[in-house]
Write a structure and sequence with these properties.
This protein has about 230 residues and is of the alpha/beta class. It has helices at about 10-20, 50-70, 110-115, 120-135, 170-185; strands spanning about 1-5, 25-30, 45, 80, 85, 85-90, 100-105, 140-145, 195-200, 205-210, 215-220, 225. The strands form four sheets. A six-stranded mixed beta sheet has the order 1-8-2-7-3-4, sandwiched between helices. It starts with a strand and ends with a strand. The relative contact order is 0.19.
């Protein structure tokens, strides 16, 4: 139902190729960085000319990351339209399809940098992206992936920000997208009911289907998950 294609080259060339292939959605994966090691929030960039679908999709993703990893959202309810004073806009503005640029963590923050280096956290991020694509493209189709900074024709050695403690932004971004590709290309039809899971790391301990409108609440003190 879903196919994934990675686009390379300079950012305009990637977008032009995705348009030619008639991609249904386009995602560019980045990670944030700051001179302050305490910076810590999830945000999504859209182009200045972004559709409402792009904005809704971006806000959903930023909030899902916030809830999953217990970090704040940045921007305006998780969204930066046009990027950081225009930075990021050029990466998306030429797409013909809904498009978002992801900045889920700060790799300059020692805690989140250590977390995102783990397979478990990368899998969790990939799962959020996969779910977002299923929600905003339920009928499937071709999805374009772009690894931020990496594979640029004009700057082939660019790898983005340095990760605290070692590593580069682009290599971790690519690892997350590869996991999302694997998930997307193996999922079946979008379920008519909402699936909930109890997980330990990457292992699913239990899963079941509930109504999409059901309210799910976790009581940490009592250790009770309530569905109503």
């Amino acid at each position: 139902m879903y196919q994934v294609k990675f686009y390379k080259g300079d950012y305009y060339a990637r977008q032009a190729a995705a348009n030619e292939d008639q991609c249904k959605l386009y995602i560019e994966q980045h990670f944030n960085s700051s001179a302050s090691q305490s910076a810590n929030y999830s945000v999504v960039v859209t182009g200045y000319n972004a559709s409402q679908t792009s904005k809704n999709w971006g806000r959903w993703y930023a909030r899902a990351v916030s809830q999953e990893f217990d970090i704040p959202v940045g921007g305006e309810s998780g969204l930066l339209v046009g990027g950081y004073n225009g930075r990021g806009d050029y990466n998306l503005r030429f797409t013909n399809m809904p498009a978002i640029l992801l900045e889920p963590f700060f790799v300059s923050n020692p805690q989140t940098a250590e977390l995102i280096k783990t397979e478990a956290a990368q899998y969790r991020l990939a799962s959020i992206l996969t779910e977002s694509i299923q929600r905003f493209l339920p009928d499937g189709g071709l999805v374009g992936f772009s690894v931020g900074h990496k594979y640029k024709t004009s700057s082939p050695n660019d790898r983005g920000a340095a990760v605290f403690g070692g590593g580069t932004e682009a290599d971790i971004a690519e690892a997350v997208l590869l996991k999302a590709q694997q998930q997307l290309e193996t999922v079946g039809a979008v379920p008519q009911e909402r699936e909930i899971k109890v997980m330990q790391g990457n292992e699913v301990l239990w899963k079941g289907n509930i109504d999409f409108d059901a309210d799910v609440r976790w009581d940490g003190q009592r250790g009770v998950l309530t569905v109503s």
